[in-house]
């Protein structure tokens, strides 16, 4: 894997080769009980990080690229939309679909990256990864590439879970679909649609009218610790539903079918969106809720604890604010920031539980477009750990 110095995108000499497999990963430690959510670790992967010896990418990109010439000589290790932890301290992280839409992402290869953060040095090593493909020809419509390697024009992958057998379930937004891959990234079954929800990309292919707008499919995908269910949380409201109310669909992993049960998550405002959803136990979930602002316009970037048992009987998941990502205590001034740390990125799409008092959150940097830290520089992928004032009391199987 290759890292390119983000301050010198055109300088060939600014290359750092990451060769460590395992070993470099470290989970930032806390310092006893905290009164408010507190930053305990900060690391960053430079925006210009590419897969060494891969393929050119970005030939269809238009608009401001913040100093990065296109096309790129290799595939970016770019904006992340889902994360699962490994027992060796590394993490499998899902790269987003490409460059923001179907039309400009046909040369972006869909990939699960393996990353190892080192909070002691504030760096992230890329230590491996797999490219997603469909060699068994299970996708029943034509793909972009004849070799059946999947691209950002085929699917918009936004969420990921790994089940006990080591296979991956991935949520897509173009269907929306659930996609099942083996450990080598090969599709194991035909894409699974969800009844009543049709994205414009599928409508264009099938002629079935769209029931939601583009890029509002499975942004969150949670796997219950008992191994029985997946819960797919849509990013946007389905036509005819209450504005800001999102469907949370239950999928049975044993029968590989939807159960017909559907829960509802209510956004704080219909203009907001979710960034990720993961399970705390069989009933509770962590959900990232965000606005579309970045930098000075970023206001709502929050993590909620949501409970599907609906104890107040109002028809939607109960929500409790867990962390305001725009107001995190930073007494150690990690990352070179002050007493108050903010995470002012347009899209924040990754959350993982490290232990009962600690979570990690990552941004999707939409490389090379997003500019949350500087109005003139492409965002890095930042990786933060946050100590919580109260225990999550998570199912022990989540903490393994």
UniProtKB/TrEMBL annotation:
Occurrences of domain Phytase-like (ranges): 75-367
Domain of life: Bacteria
Cleaved signal peptide residues: 1-25
Sorted UniProt keywords: Signal
InterPro entries: Phytase-like_dom
Record flagged with keyword Lipoprotein: no
Protein name: Glycerophosphoryl diester phosphodiesterase
Organism: Paractinoplanes ferrugineus
């Amino acid at each position: 894997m290759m890292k390119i110095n983000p301050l010198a995108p055109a300088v060939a000499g600014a290359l750092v080769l990451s060769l460590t497999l395992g070993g470099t990963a470290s989970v930032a430690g806390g310092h006893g009980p905290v009164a408010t959510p507190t930053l305990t670790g900060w690391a960053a992967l430079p925006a210009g990080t590419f897969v060494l010896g891969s393929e050119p990418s970005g030939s269809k990109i238009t608009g401001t690229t913040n100093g990065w010439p296109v096309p790129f000589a290799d595939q970016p290790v770019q904006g992340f939309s889902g994360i699962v932890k490994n027992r060796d301290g590394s993490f499998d992280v899902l790269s987003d679909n490409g460059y923001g839409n179907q039309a400009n992402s046909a040369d972006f290869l869909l990939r699960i990256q393996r990353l190892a953060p080192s909070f002691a040095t504030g760096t992230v090593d890329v230590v491996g990864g797999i490219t997603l493909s469909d060699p068994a020809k299970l996708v029943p419509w034509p793909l972009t590439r004849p070799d059946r390697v999947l691209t950002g024009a085929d699917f918009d992958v936004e969420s990921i879970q790994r089940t006990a057998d080591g296979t991956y379930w991935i949520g897509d937004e173009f269907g929306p679909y659930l996609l099942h891959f083996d450990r080598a990234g090969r599709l194991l079954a035909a894409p699974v649609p969800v009844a009543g929800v049709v994205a414009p990309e599928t409508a264009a292919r099938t002629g079935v009218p769209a029931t939601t707008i583009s890029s509002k499919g499975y942004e969150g995908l949670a796997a219950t610790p008992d191994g029985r269910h997946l819960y797919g949380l849509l990013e946007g409201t389905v036509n005819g539903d209450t504005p800001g109310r999102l469907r949370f669909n239950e999928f049975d992993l044993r029968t590989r079918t939807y159960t017909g049960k559907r829960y509802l998550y209510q956004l704080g405002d219909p203009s907001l969106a979710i960034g990720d959803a993961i399970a705390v136990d069989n009933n509770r979930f962590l959900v990232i809720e965000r606005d579309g602002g970045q930098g000075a316009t970023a206001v709502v970037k929050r993590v909620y604890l949501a409970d599907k048992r609906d104890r107040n009987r109002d028809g939607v998941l109960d929500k409790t604010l867990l962390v305001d990502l725009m107001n995190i205590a930073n007494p150690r001034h990690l990352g070179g920031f002050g007493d108050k740390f903010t995470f002012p990125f347009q899209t924040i799409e990754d959350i993982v539980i490290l232990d009962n008092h600690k979570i990690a959150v990552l941004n999707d940097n939409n490389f090379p477009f997003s500019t949350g830290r500087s109005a003139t520089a492409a965002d890095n992928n930042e990786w933060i750990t946050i100590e919580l004032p109260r225990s999550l009391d998570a199912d022990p199987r989540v903490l393994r």
